[in-house]
Amino acid sequence: MFGSVEDYGEMFQDTVTQTRGASLSSENQIGNPVVYKLVRVAQDGRLVPATDEEMLEVKDLVENNENDMPIVADPGQTEECIFDEGSPSQFLQLDSFEGLFQPETAEAYTENLNSRLECKEELAYGSQMLVTFPDTNYYQSSSELPWNEEFVQSEFLLQEPVCFSSDGCSIDQSMDVSPYSIATGGSSPKVPALSTTTPNPGVSRDTDNICLGNLSIKALQETFRTTFGRETTCKDKLWLKRKIKMGQVNPCAMPTTTLTDNDTKLTLGGQDSKADCIKGHPNDCPVEAFVDHYSGSEDFEGEHRSAKRVRKATRRYIEEISKVDEKQQSNESVIPSKDERSISSAVSSGRRVVVTRMISFAGSRIQVPYVSHVRRSRPRENIMALGEFHSGLWEVKATREESKLNLSQSHLNNDVKRVSGVKSVSGPVKKKLTTHRQSYKDHSKPEVDQDFMEPEHMDSSGDSSDDSNYNHADLPITASAMRRKHHRAWTLSEVKKLVEGVSKYGVGKWCVIKRLSFPSYSHRTPVDLKDKWRNLLRVSLARTPLNNMGSVRKQGSIAIPSQVLSQVRELAKKKSHVSPARKARMVKASSRHGFL
DNA sequence: CTTAGGG
DNA sequence: CCCTAAG
To answer: What keyword terms does UniProt attach to this protein (predicted)?
Structure first.
């Protein structure tokens, strides 16, 4: 379950140092072993490696609880629970973190967190402050460190050991793993309750609502202390201000989410000034914690690491917020640190959390949402292709509206091509993806874009199926007309042809009519004819009675001569008044008599 | 594939 | 104009 900790003496710092160096060059490594080391925080805040005695003590302790620790899933993993006998409520947590923070790693990590948590919980019962340092990949003695990353996380709890106190609070927290899983739990549900454990809750809120602008570092530190109930040695004004503000604004201040996370202090032997900051991200709220991280140091990573369970955002989710995030990222999360590697971390926006990674873009580093390389929504093709593609494939699944839109694009494109005289891809593509309507096009004249050779006579009303119709004087170019891009207004000539066709072949013989009367109209499908007929019929029936103005036309549509309308009526009558059977007989009869 | 009818 | 259910 846990390995023994050998030399915790000087090795610690060396280790840290080494690993850090190593990690810098371990960019490619995917596995991010997490090594837990137990150390304690000395009075001066320094991190002191546990002594052998302490280790033994812990060991025993751990062994006793071994059975109860459902630790890790990783076989090769090792956990060590080391007792920190230093100050009652002070303990350090070592963790690894540098390096790529792959989502997978995050998962593994959180797994460990959970187990660690449990470990702690167990130990906490014994009023011991323990921390485990699991090594996700393999166990390593403190001396050998291929650690490609290390991370020191310390929890510096003051007056009230918030998470580890035996006041039950800790227990509840421990039991609830949700804090780790932001994604699942949304914004830390525990916050409210937990916040109550925040040291000096009242004090901080009230007293800190002051302008932090002019405060000195010392003052800021003090404010920080009153706000979060802990000391900080951080000398970064900006960071302090941020944290303080967060603490004031955000109720869920304080490290509540996890026993291990919050309040971490990185001392690393005090080498790194930034590392000296108490990093408790006062807010549990993933959002703040992540977005507003104090980057550039282990703190940064620690904060992320500690925050909750990082879960790969869903594709949809990512898309939804990706815009927002990118903005935020570029503005707030650019890591100004020395760290040149691509760090993936959990970044949240609003209440949502998304895994992001750093990338270099145009010379600057920005954080972008992590997206698996699985197929990503729709690739952005160039407009032309898009149109064609959509009209063909996407139409299938797209919503009605969408498909319409797509189709319209396609048509527009066609039009464009038509105008430019380019047959281009549309031909082949269409054939491939033919829809019922397109098939007709193929039937008539496959290789040529029918619209080009509108051979049919065009009467003055304008006609031809071309979109140029929109420019004809007699065709009102209303806004509505323009909106219905791919809709081709029926021209009078077409209507006439249709009526003629109906009279010749009968109502309902749309395919025949299409074939014989509209051979060159690539766009008018039998269905279109049918639809148009329906409309004509309706119009004719509607206004026929009292309206003398045969040419009165409905808004936005061409005028239909009363003559034509009456024709329509007649034809309709024939159909409606005669049953199919009778009609058939009539047809036969008429043909016998040489009619038709 | 055609038709017919609803959306 | 689109989509679909029926022949």
So the answer is: Nucleus
pTM of the model: 0.29
Q: Using the CB atom, is residue A524 less than 7 Å from strand C?
A: yes
The DSSP symbol for A297 reads S
Which of the 266-305 residues on chain A come under 7 Å of nucleic strand B at their beta carbon? none
- Predicted confidence at residue A530, as pLDDT, reads 92
Å from A590 (CA) to C5 (C1')?
34
Question: Domain span at residue A540?
Answer: 443-592
Q: In the 8-state DSSP scheme, what is residue A369?
A: E
Same domain, A480 and A547: yes
Residue A226 located in a structural domain: no
Does one domain contain both A331 and A475?
no
Helices (H), A343-490: 383-389, 395-397, 400-420, 426-432, 436-444, 479-483
Question: Is residue A235, in this structure, part of any structural domain at all?
Answer: no
Domain count, chain A: 4
CATH code of the domain in which A527 resides: 1.10.246.220
Identity at A303, one-letter amino acid code: E
SS (H, E, C) A504-534: HHCCCCHHHHHHHHCCCCCCCCHHHHHHHHH
Q: Are residues A319 and A284 in the same domain?
A: no
A365 lies in the same domain as A393: no
Please name which of A383, A395, A405 lies closest in space to residue A438, comparing C-alpha atoms: A395
Report whether A332 contacts A292 (CB < 8 A).
yes
Across the range A169-183, mean pLDDT stands at 33
A523 CB contact with strand C at below 7 Å? yes
**CA A556 from centre of chain:** 43
A430 CB less than 7 Å from any atom of strand C: no
**A178 within domain boundaries:** yes
Are A72 and A97 in a shared domain? yes
User: What is the per-residue pLDDT for A133?
Assistant: 37
The SS3 call for residue A94 is strand
When the pLDDT of each residue in chain A is averaged and rounded to a whole number, the result is 48
Q: Of chain A residues 519-538, which have a beta carbon within 7 Å of strand B?
A: 526-527, 530-531
